[in-house]
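Sample pair:
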Amino acid sequence: MRRPLIVGNWKMNGSRSRNAELLGALLSRWQGVHQAEVGVCSPSVYLQQLADCLTGSNIWVGAQDVSPHDSGAYTGEVSAAMLAEMDCHYVIVGHSERREYHGETDALVAQKFAAAQKADIVPILCVGETLAQRDAGDALVVIGEQLKVVIEACGRDAFSQAVIAYEPVWAIGTGRTATPKQAQEVHAFIRDQLGEQGLGVRILYGGSVKGANAADLFAETDIDGALVGGASLKAEEFIEICRAAE
């Protein structure tokens, strides 16, 4: 049975004082043993603060990006080995904002996926379509190609130590959410693309997830949790989503 997973993606938000307040609130509300697993992905400059606050708790530390390179003259990049030293358990790769604003290709995302696994960090591979692609009926074609490049580079077996997050680009930060039926259709497609390996892979939904819609999404067969953006910056809202995954 796949264990539910909720991961907060703070994006480019936070300050040391605000982080301490938020983490303290999360830790006070999410104690003991739970059915759902929880992680938080912060900007890289705050990873040490996360490690100091969360190590030994039941909330995992995660990063938002990783370099495909081990080391070298790559100014501004952060390697997987560096993230591992910060106790990172998860790292997001291929987020739609990285693909759109930084021109990340499917091939580069596959390299980052492999780099994370080389350092024993679990990659959270993001896939998803734009509104134009969905309206054109190409959503599954786009997502299938995004998956195919990683499968060809790393193999299906690599997904035994990975998580996939389906993010309809048109639903990220817009307040719009894919209906549970729409999300389930894509999640089932993703699982099918991975063959037998897909049975154990956790597939998260990401795109304006809130406490109000989380339970309906999680009730679908192939939705194993959520990659949460804006709502992860509000302790009560984030914990409500975590509890819905229970």
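DSSP finds ten helices and eight strands in the chain.
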